[in-house]
């Protein structure tokens, strides 16, 4: 594992897990996504992980025209690394998920390292009514669908974005098998170090939010990748801050954001992504850990630089 006293804070601004009913602070329109992303960068996030939503309904969308309504504004307002999803949502095809990043040619994209069950349907029981007709069926669909990321899908993304655009990746690993999948692509020389490995805890269908799982994922990544990877941790819902703290103590970088959790404390909704960035900074400070700037994050991750992107 790459060891550094600089901690990279990523912020996942809106994602495709939560729906508008769940929080009035979830950014959905291009203006809201841009403003929240810029605020997170100003608060100290050096990487901004971005999805798009339909401006009228807040439903996750892969439409590159929607992405292009907020990407240029973010680039003009901050030097943060823009990280565009290739995961999209569980109901999108791989072609839909690639449309925006192929248009934008970003320096960094997320890449899910295996197919999995991705259960959002338990959220249905927490709300009596939904603002939009699409929300309940969208959540229910996760009961009987697979979040597809086949070996062929991964190869396609690596070829079209990695080889074709010079894009590097945040490798999202929801389980130990995903780490082995990444090692397979490393053995085939289809990915190049340093690998930015995001280990994810607390999603139904992936690794559970247990402390031993966090340590096990690190030990396994250490064995598979040695000094060729940079470790980061994210966790869903109420597990977000405790897991990020444990990860940081053990040398990890961290990811916050309203994609992963809507809260800023027990029973208290976060009013913005910037609030979560500020909370994790307050946790990291007593640990004598410095926050990486965007320039430092680019150097650590060996990115191509923001001037080469297409937006």
Automatic annotation (TrEMBL):
It comes from the Bacteria. Keywords: Metal-binding, Transferase, Zinc. One of its GO terms (molecular function) is 3-keto-5-aminohexanoate cleavage activity. It comes from Sphingobium fluviale. This is 3-keto-5-aminohexanoate cleavage protein. InterPro entries: Aldolase_TIM, BKACE. Its cofactor is Zn(2+).
């Amino acid at each position: 594992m790459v060891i550094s006293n600089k901690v990279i804070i990523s912020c996942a601004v809106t994602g495709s897990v939560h729906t508008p009913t769940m929080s009035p602070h979830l950014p959905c329109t291009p203006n809201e996504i841009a403003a929240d992303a810029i605020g997170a960068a100003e608060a100290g996030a050096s990487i901004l992980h971005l999805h798009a939503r339909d401006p009228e309904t807040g439903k996750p969308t892969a439409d590159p025209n929607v992405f292009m309504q907020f990407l240029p504004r973010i680039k003009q307002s901050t030097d943060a690394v823009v990280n565009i999803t290739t995961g999209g949502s569980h109901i999108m095809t791989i072609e839909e998920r690639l449309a925006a990043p192929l248009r934008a040619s970003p320096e960094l994209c997320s890449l899910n390292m295996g197919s999995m069950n991705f259960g959002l349907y338990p959220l249905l029981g927490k709300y009596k009514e939904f603002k939009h007709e699409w929300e309940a069926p969208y959540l229910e669909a996760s009961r009987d669908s697979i979040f597809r990321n086949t070996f062929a899908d991964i190869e396609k993304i690596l070829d079209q974005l990695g080889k074709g655009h010079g894009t590097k990746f945040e490798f999202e690993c929801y389980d130990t098998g995903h780490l082995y999948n990444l090692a397979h692509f490393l053995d085939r020389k289809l990915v190049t170090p340093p690998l930015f490995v995001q280990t994810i805890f607390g999603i139904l269908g992936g690794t559970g939010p247990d402390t031993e799982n966090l340590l096990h994922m690190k030990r396994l990544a250490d064995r598979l990748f040695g000094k060729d990877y940079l470790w980061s941790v994210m966790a869903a819902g109420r597990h977000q801050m405790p897991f990020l703290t444990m990860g940081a103590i053990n040398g990890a970088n961290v990811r916050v954001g309203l994609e992963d959790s809507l809260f800023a404390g027990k029973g208290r909704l976060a009013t913005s992504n910037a609030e979560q960035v500020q909370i994790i900074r307050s946790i990291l400070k007593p640990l004598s850990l410095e926050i990486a700037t965007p320039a430092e994050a680019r150097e650590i991750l060996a990115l191509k630089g923001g001037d080469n992107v297409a937006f």
